[in-house]
Amino acid sequence: MTPGTLDSLTPSMLPGLIGPFLASRVRGVHEGQVSPLLDGWSHEDFRTLLDHVRDLGREHRVYEAHPRLRPLARDYIRLVFPDWSLSGQDHLRRALQDGSAVIVTNHLSYIDAMATDAALSWSGNADLADRIVYIAGPKVYQELFRLLAAASIHNLPVPQSGRLGHTEALPPRELARRVRASLDASRAAMKGGRAVLLYPEGARTRTGRMGSFIQATRRYLEGADFLVPAAIAGTERAMPVDGEVLQPSSLTLSFGPPVPLAGVDPREALTAAHLAIEDLLPEPLRPDGSAPRLR
Length: 295
What we know:
Blueprint: H1 18-23, H2 31-34, H3 43-55, H4 69-76, E1 83-87, H5 89-98, E2 101-105, H6 112-122, H7 126-129, E3 132-136, H8 144-151, E4 154-157, H9 172-191, E5 195-198, E6 226-233, H10 235-238, E7 250-255, E8 259-260, H11 266-280
Parallel strand pairs: 1-7, 2-5, 2-6, 3-4, 3-5
Antiparallel strand pairs: 6-7, 6-8
């Protein structure tokens, strides 16, 4: 199903569609494991979800997680990651206690954000999970499963340069306007006590190994007191770049010590984050050394 399918749906149709659709996206999972997650949903819950998903990505602002879909997604993604581990979350907690924070992490899969949110929640750190806003590129809003994933977390759409080849080619002035709107929304979120999570590679790695960070992402560090490095592993097996069906896998999420940003050149901070994430990653996911840390 594509986002265009949403135009033909009504709230009364969703109870019979969501369970089978989500079950079909995980190998070995059947509808009976997913549909019970919808027990207790009212017609109004389905109506607000449909409205929410239809609206996602239209503006460059923070979209709050749908309150009913969020707990469902955390239970659903556990079917994908029966084995998981989390470490270093106290680093993130300390950064948010002492100021505002940007989380910088590697990017393996479209379910990285869902997995991060879920692992924090499963570990008893739902209060931290609830404070994170995920930066999301245009492709997140171009497929129905990704839209539902985005609806389960706080997300902020950001434009990407048409030079990436998979995004809309925008006139420079319009691209600049959209970038400014996203930056303003990011800073407002941090002022409100949120952490912003950024994938500075700009796109999912095609090899599994972390690539160079895009220098322009440094603008999202402005207004933050700390940069918190994080590393995720396992999502590349659960949802490979060319995969459509999720494969049950293990998940590892690690946070490193916060990097103070006061008086630090943002490029230097991104370089430090790249190094820190490399240290947190298993060897097969580390950079191969052939590319610069920033591009």
